[in-house]
Amino acid sequence: MASLINLKDFNDLSVVNNLLSECMCSDEERVNAEITTYLEDNSRGLYGRFLNDELVGLIGVIHGSIGEVELKHISIKQDYRGKGIGRRMIHEYVQAKNIVKMKAETDKDAVGFYNKLGFTIMSLGEKYPGVERFECIFLL
User: What parts of the chain have a pLDDT lower than 70?
Assistant: First the structure.
């Protein structure tokens, strides 16, 4: 993965924390716990995209069986959204790791993103009060 950097080795976790908090919509304690899980759990991967030495995007994954992965988090810095960075990160990861199946769960706001990438979308219904969730699956 030439362009994606393994964030488990990245020194400035505050930058990672800020970007991850944008997609988690959670308090600082929960975001810190999630970063700790990524750092300590070998079944998880956390990768970032840098432009001009600035972390502009990240993806967090949970490795399943061989060739399968769950996309747990994806976040692009506000100023860089809509420029194809998320799409490129996913495609790079899929190619580099020989992924044949990727799944993700999301809300109504991000369904269009996954649909444009060729994911199959299925409603999970109202998983939380007033919040419809969707399962997105990409098969190669």
Answer: 1-2
Closest by Cα among 138, 18, 6 to 75: 18
Q: Which of 124, 96, 37 is nearest to 72 (CA)?
A: 37
- In whole angstroms, give the CA distance from residue 113 to residue 15: 24
**What is the CATH architecture of 1-83?**
3-Layer(aba) Sandwich (3.40)
Report how far apart, in Å, the C-alpha atoms of 47 and of each of 38, 83, 90, 102, 107 are: 10, 18, 10, 16, 22
Report pLDDT for 99. Answer: 97
User: What residues have CB less than 8 Å from 102, skipping those under 6 apart?
Assistant: 68, 69, 70, 71, 90, 94, 119, 137, 138
What pLDDT is recorded for position 2?
Answer: 44
pTM (2 d.p.): 0.92
The pLDDT value recorded for residue 60 is 98
Whole-number Å distance between alpha carbons of 98 and 121: 22
Cβ partners under 8 Å of residue 18, min gap 6: none
Q: What is the pLDDT of residue 27?
A: 86
- The two tokens of residue 92 are 């790079």
Residues belonging to the chain = 140
